[in-house]
Amino acid sequence: MYTHFVLNLRKIRKMEAKISTSKSIGLVLSGGGVRGMAHIGLIRAMNEFGIDAKIVSGSSVGALVGALYANGNSIDDMLTFFKETPLFSYHFLTIAKAGFLDTEKYISVFEKYFPENAFSALIRELHIVATNLQDGDEEFFSSGELIRPMLASAALPPVFSPIQINGNLYADGGIMNNFPLEPLLNTCDYIIGSNVSIVGRLDEKDLKNSLQLTGRVTGLMIYASAKKKLRACNLLLESREIERIGLLDRKGIEKAYLIGYDAACRVFEKECKTY
Length: 275
Hints:
This protein has eight helices and eight strands. By secondary structure, it is α/β, with parallel strands linked by helices. The chain has a single domain, classed as Cytosolic phospholipase A2 catalytic domain (3-Layer(aba) Sandwich).
């Protein structure tokens, strides 16, 4: 583990030069539940290497991490947000909505981190994707109210209820677009992607029941839809280690964060060696 990563200053300057000469740097953050804490590890590595993204696009947990980054929150603030926000609380249970948890009850939690509740209040440009359940389309949000689109993008059915925005019901962005590269195309000169929805080989013993099979098929469909977009990134961060962490396993927050940090440091170090 790169708990204390030290790199020759000259190499760091060359790494900065390679990326910072671009007119704009874009950052794409995928969905993936708790595995998305690896995005925070990447951002920590970016900070240490002097890499600053001007535009961020995120889906599901990537939208949440992206919003915190766009808001200028520190790494500690980001980790605290996910560690202290109650993922499952009996206070949020509902029988009146389509979902086990009432997503709208999380609005007050988010207001503590985003008191102005507006895209315009962020220090970086942010794009969030959510799924319009009624129209059957994906939709990007980048202006106006911030919190409701954020919650909608991370509202995974059937755990979380859909969020109503402008008369329509929205749910998890990953349903239609788990790697929202589109807003950065023809806008950014250098794109860094972080994908935590990894699809590796499974043993036969891991496909013994309907639940396992459904999870595998869903994962393959999500990955297939993102393949071409992953290749379009100038720099892509993925780590097979992240597969060991459950999508809703809160105990994996710190581990996923460190996996993301270590993987990013290794990639950045490799980039430095080419100069």
